[in-house]
Design a protein that fits this description.
Helices cover 0% and strands 42% of the residues. The chain is mainly β. It has a single domain, classed as Neuraminidase (6 Propeller). The strands form nine sheets. Strands 20, 21, 22, 24 and 25 form a five-stranded antiparallel beta sheet that branches. It is globular and about 50 Å long.
Length: 458
């Protein structure tokens, strides 16, 4: 089901394009956000939002005000949307990355913004500036503590990296529903990375897995409501297969937490494939953010298959936990990894688990096959997004949100946000066999390590 489209016509970006969705659900409300009108060299004309109050049956859509010059704001471009909900203050928030003033090309200054809605995601206020720099920020994210018994219930946490300072990771905390934000704080040791995703555990601890510049997955945490951030723990190294067809992907972590506080991290990885010929989606878990399980393969296809899997989006039903936790995973894939820009068939898939990842359903095809030429072009490859998203509503159903595309009409693309609904309770499962699987390819450094210490994902 399409849930949004690009309304802009400025000649400087690509239309109609929408890429890189995030979503969050609370109760029967789902809010999704996505880049709209993608520029080739970074950012978009604006961020579009889509809101459902009936668990995905119907949607209201619009664009954020006060962001770019195309929406009555000062910024040239905006990127990297993420959405969260603060139930204590009844505020929905969208974090975005803005850069360039007026109609300037990609560049400094830049800022992390937060847009707020106090009416359930149907209207949005002009954004609040979380942090501003004259250099360049990248890869922001936002999450709120939604656990009523938590000592930090209602705190919201924004993460980003300062690309101009070697991708230094930074965090800011709000205790008033996103109206004001505290100073930028770095974890102990000032680590470098990008793509951090904070999640709050029911005990109030905030765990932030992140990409160590594509070479590994690291994690840090706060136990005092964001007043300070501890040192880095290594989750796992990354061994990542370069996806064919000139498609833009990277092994960024996607993170969720269950009702008992168990944290789940997934990313694309080829360690279980002979000669690293394809990516699987792998998962690591932790109950404290300090000790992590060895990565296990989510068994979407056999390790001998030709399928390549990438750009995952995981959800955990917040009413479930531990061995009965309900997990849902959306992802993109190629049915045949050995393809090129003219032959690759980009597709969205979905699997789920009702036992905390011990077993997984058979894969389901969610979208029709898409040709690579149908999707937005960027300086880092054709783009559906550096991430996608999946969320659970209170009825126990899972809703992946993703970018899909049809054949362009002349020079105008046909790429937009879409969603689907899956009844996890009534689905069928097949055994995982993951406990017997061992990596066949190990590296201390990820296969992307040659990209250098300052990769950018704007």
């Amino acid at each position: 089901m399409p849930i949004s489209s690009d309304p802009y016509t400025n000649a400087s970006s690509q239309h109609k394009t929408q890429v890189e969705p995030d979503s969050f659900a609370f109760g029967s409300t789902i809010v999704s956000v996505i880049q709209t009108g993608r520029f080739f060299d970074g950012g978009a004309s604006n961020i579009a939002w889509s809101t459902s109050h009936d668990a995905g049956h119907s949607w209201t859509t619009g664009t954020l005000p006060g962001t770019t010059v195309y929406a009555g704001g000062p910024w040239a471009r905006v990127s990297d949307p993420a959405v969260a909900y603060d139930p204590l203050h009844n505020v929905w928030m969208v974090s975005s990355l803005a850069f360039g003033l007026g109609f300037s090309p990609l560049g400094s200054p830049s800022a992390v913004l937060t847009s707020r809605s106090t009416d359930g995601g149907l209207t949005w206020q002009d954004p609040v500036t979380v942090s501003f720099t004259t250099s360049f920020y990248d890869k922001n994210w936002i999450a709120c503590d939604t656990w009523a018994a938590s000592p930090h219930y209602g705190n919201c946490y924004t993460e980003w990296d300062d690309n101009g300072a070697g991708n230094r990771l930074e965090m800011s905390t709000s205790t008033d529903g996103g109206l004001t934000w505290g100073p930028a704080l770095s974890p102990t040791g000032f680590p470098s990375g990008l793509g951090g995703q904070p999640v709050a555990q029911p005990n109030g601890t905030v765990v932030v897995p992140y990409s160590v510049n594509d070479a590994a997955i690291g994690s840090f945490r706060s136990t005092d409501g964001g007043a300070s951030w501890g040192g880095v723990t290594t989750v796992a190294g990354v061994t990542d297969h370069f996806v064919a067809g000139g498609l833009r992907t990277s092994p960024l972590p996607l993170v969720e937490v269950d009702a008992a506080g168990k944290v789940y991290v997934v990313w694309q990885d080829c360690r279980f494939r002979t000669s690293c010929l394809s990516n699987d989606i792998v998962m690591s878990t932790s109950t404290d953010g300090l000790t992590w399980s060895a990565p296990s393969r989510i068994p979407i296809d056999a390790t001998t298959s030709t399928v390549d899997h990438f750009i995952p989006g995981i959800a955990v039903d917040p009413a479930t936990s531990a061995s009965s936790a309900h997990l849902a995973l959306g992802y993109y894939y190629y049915p045949e990894r050995s393809c090129n820009a003219s032959t690759c068939q980009l597709t969205v898939g979905f699997v789920f688990s009702r036992d905390g990842g011990a077993t997984w359903s058979a894969p389901q095809q969610v979208s029709q096959h898409m040709m690579i030429s149908w999707i937005a072009s960027t300086s880092q490859g054709r783009m559906v997004g550096d991430y996608m998203s999946t969320s659970f509503t209170s009825d126990g159903k899972a809703h992946p949100v993703f970018a899909i595309a049809k054949a362009p009409q002349g020079s105008v693309y046909n790429e937009q946000a879409a969603t689907a609904t899956f009844d996890v309770m009534n689905g069928r499962l097949r055994p995982a066999g993951a406990a017997r699987e061992k990596p066949v390819f190990k590296l201390r450094q990820g296969l992307r390590a040659h990209l250098g210490v300052n990769p950018r994902r704007d």
